[in-house]
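Hi D.,

Good news: the full-assembly prediction came through. Inputs first.
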Amino acid sequence: MHSPMEQFEIKRLLDLRIGSLDASYTNSALWMTIAVVLATLLFVYGMRQRALVPGRLQAVAELGYEFVAGMVRDNVGNAGKKYFPFILTLFVFILFCNVLGLVPYSFTPTSHIIVTFSMAIVVFIGVTIIGFARHGLHFLEFFVPKGVPAWLLVILVPIEVISYFVRPFSLSIRLFANMLAGHTMLKVFGGFVVMLGILAGWAPLAFIVALTGLELIIAFLQAYVFTILTCLYLNDAIHMSH
Amino acid sequence: MRIPVYSAFAALAVLGASGAAHAAADGGMPQLNFHDFAPQIVWLVIAFAVLYFVMSKAAIPAISGTLEKRQGKIQGDLDAAEKASEETRALVTAYEKRLSDAREQARRLQRERSEADSAAATARLAELGQRLGAKIDEAEKRIAGQRSQVLEGIEDMAHDIAADVYAKLAGQPADKAALGAKVALAKGGR
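Then the structure:
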């Protein structure tokens, strides 16, 4: 029996190097590419008619657009419009990676901490830059809760600072761990099906079917959570509201 | 987030149990293999940049344009409907005004007509009255003339009758002049 972790193995399909940088085209890159191509198909091919009464693909594309636009509008407000393309891209990219990862024999780029952490750190640094660009050094007041006695600030300010710097980790580990756990569970129970054979294998098989449905929800939910937290962080930076 | 968290714990527990044997051989989690970090980051950046480009240059303008167009079309249709309804209301108002004007005019004409009619009738009646009055006067005059004639005739007749009566009684013709005086005396004595 294979290890349930084998599915997360990075395989180099094409060895590439940029100077000393290893830029090999891996199975992860392949599935990122597939995700980008499918997303492009949905959003560009699906929108080709720009019909007033949308067809199926166009309705889906518009739905995704409106979903994220609503998220940005509700959580960031008008100031968030500038960052909408980035947030939409983030949502679509994570959603497609997550959902495509459920295809048998596929690979889930978002099940790797380095991928999720890279996105989270970009969000974190970007949001911090936006905060300082908008408020200058006043952005540091973000760490000082208002209307709190001075002696309490001694405790609260470090907590605020720590919770701020924990954001990229919680953001990336949440997505990574959910993908990792879901796929591992599927693999482990898949192993049980093989192990228990035709007599008792039905039980774990039924469980896998249910779990696949759950994983589909989680694939969407985690893309949503990542996106909405990005919106909330952006809102913190723009409006400095707790 | 409860279910994903629990599933994570469950998976990690299972991992701990079943993956322990493989861990040594596989070198732990593939996620922690630092040699694989660089290619993943490189291709993440490339893929994300391409998708960002596609989204910001093609998809978002297309979708927002379509949504705006649809909103504009809906708003335009609503406006047109509103305008049409207003026009209809204006037409109905104008129609009602014209109808009431026409009714008013008809009433006025009728009144004028009846007034004119009654004036003409009065005039005709007066004229008729005059004419009739004139005829009556003429007739009265004629009657009066005839009466006086008749009365004169009666006097002559009286003379004749008196002469006849005298002739019968006296057996001789009467003196016309004396008889005439007597008749006149009798007439005056009446």
